Amino acid sequence: MAGAPRTPKGEAMREAPQGIGEVLTHYGAEYVPEGYKWAPMRCPFHDDRSASASVSTERGAFKCHACEAKGDPIALIRWKESCDYFSALEILTGILGDSHPAISARNARKSRRRVFDEPGPSPGQHSIFSTRVRRRFDAGT
Question: Is the distance from CB of 23 to CB of 91 less than 8 angstroms?
Fold first, then answer.
């Protein structure tokens, strides 16, 4: 594995990702320090006698300086479980439960495509397809 996979842009966790402490505890961390600044801790992904990792729970980020583990909760799950983004999102939902607002209350995106039975734009709306004839500008005549 060549590092932690990145989370796709524009997906569910656009605001500060929450749940980094719960994910690290799920994978065996004994103590996860709270706070905005980077705090040292033992890495739960390998045997550690001293603190070789840093975590910021307010930023929702983790970085181990000894192994390749780094990123937000979804990136850590993807790295550890070797799965895709949506499988990691399901695992994260299982770890955090249904009460987590960033996952359970995400907005479902509605498709902009019309199906054949659906009506077109209302009279006050404009279609992207113009019904007028395009004019050609004559250059220099």
Answer: no
β-strand partners of 64? 53
Tens-binned pLDDT, residue by residue, of the chain (141 aa):
455 555 554 444 445 457 899 999 999 998 899 887 899 999 999 998 899 999 998 889 999 999 989 999 999 999 999 999 999 999 999 998 865 555 543 444 555 555 566 566 565 555 566 565 556 666 665
Give dist(CA 31, CA 100) in Å, integer: 21
Beta bridge partners of 54: 40, 63
Residues 29 and 62 sit within 8 Å (Cβ to Cβ) = no
pTM for the structure as a whole: 0.59
Q: Show Cβ contacts of residue 132 under 8 Å, excluding neighbours closer than 6 positions.
A: none
Collapsed DSSP state (helix, strand, coil) of residue 91 = helix
